[in-house]
């Protein structure tokens, strides 16, 4: 039997119960379960505000769009970002009509503070930090740099549902954090996400932007029974980015198991670390300063990554690569910023299988293959 990188686990009966409730009530859209998951998420994470959306890609776009509109940022205003990420992170900057500037990473695979400092210009308005694999890297240092320099700090927390430091969800001190509940993330639905602003005003604003710019407040405040529902105002160009109750019904159930499942991911990772520590041809990623990572990924690096990938594939093990340096993609090749560490990592990293349906025997089978690799 083959061993895959990610297979999401759904608590099927409970999810179906929640979906059935939506169908029976005749309410599958915005409201109902979307409000319930927002409340559950705030309770779980201690964010003060959370808005349920259709994806983290939309959320990252919105995070930038909210601050851009508020502060009248211009096309040549800059957003510092990483090139070792899923393409959504950087597309979001272009969706918002802003200019990405690439800073380099360090051995945590997250942004390097000294490289960030060297990228700051008078045009720098925001920075996106990606907590890759659930890792925190030098989050604190970079958040402090941003707050000292008046730069908006955005956390791409697509891998960080349940990643905690000092028993607290990471991201609550960011200006805005964006989570993904996409099909193969560690809190899987089919497609959904959460955007969590620090300030109430931004949270209110983003709710308007996720529903086409419609301002429901105009009459909702004065008319109780829902007559005049059509008498809303549209004040600016918004998007169709809000989440729906079917996705929320799944997320509500999946969230209940998040801590338990992240903990299982950590035991997989511990097993890998114990069994691979003597292999001098591979390196672990430096996981800094964190007491409870979501462990969305377990990454290692080695010089002959592509050969190792072929060897594992030939033995029915299918790891992944997170990610290819985005500057290798044609449309990003000419943006500012040299990232030698990212480029090197991009050719060396490999993500070993981590998911709930993987038994520790499966993990051991992968470890045996890796232990035999250079002996072949
Ligand atoms: C998956 C992912 C996203 C996008 O999430 P979606 O919910 O699929 O839009 C953004 N950033 C990173 C780092 C991701 O891995």
Any overview of this molecule?
- The chain has 376 residues and is α/β, with parallel strands linked by helices.
- The protein has 2 domains: 254 residues, Aspartate Aminotransferase, domain 2 (3-Layer(aba) Sandwich); 118 residues, Alpha-Beta Complex (Aspartate Aminotransferase, domain 1).
- Helices cover 39% and strands 15% of the residues.
- It has 13 helices and 16 strands.
- A 7-stranded mixed β-sheet has the order 2-10-9-6-5-3-4, sandwiched between helices.
- Strand 7 and strand 8 form a beta hairpin.
- Helix 1 runs antiparallel to helix 9, helix 3 runs parallel beside helix 4 and helix 10 packs parallel to helix 13.
- It starts with a strand and ends with a helix.
- Bound molecules: pyridoxal-5'-phosphate.
- Pyridoxal-5'-phosphate (PLP) binds next to helix 3 and helix 4.
Quick tags:
three-stranded antiparallel sheet; alpha/beta; seven-stranded mixed sheet; 39% helix; Aspartate Aminotransferase, domain 1
From N to C, what is the helix and strand string? EHHEHEHEHEHEEEEEHEHEHHEEHEHEH
The dominant shape is globular
Q: Report the count of strand segments.
A: 16
Strand arrangement in the largest pleated sheet: 2-10-9-6-5-3-4
Which percent bin holds the helix content? 25-40%
CATH domain topology of the largest domain? Aspartate Aminotransferase, domain 2
Number of domains: 2
CATH top level of the largest domain is Alpha Beta
Q: Could you tell me the strand content as a percent range?
A: 15-25%
State the CATH superfamily name of the largest domain: Type I PLP-dependent aspartate aminotransferase-like (Major domain)
Low-confidence spans: none
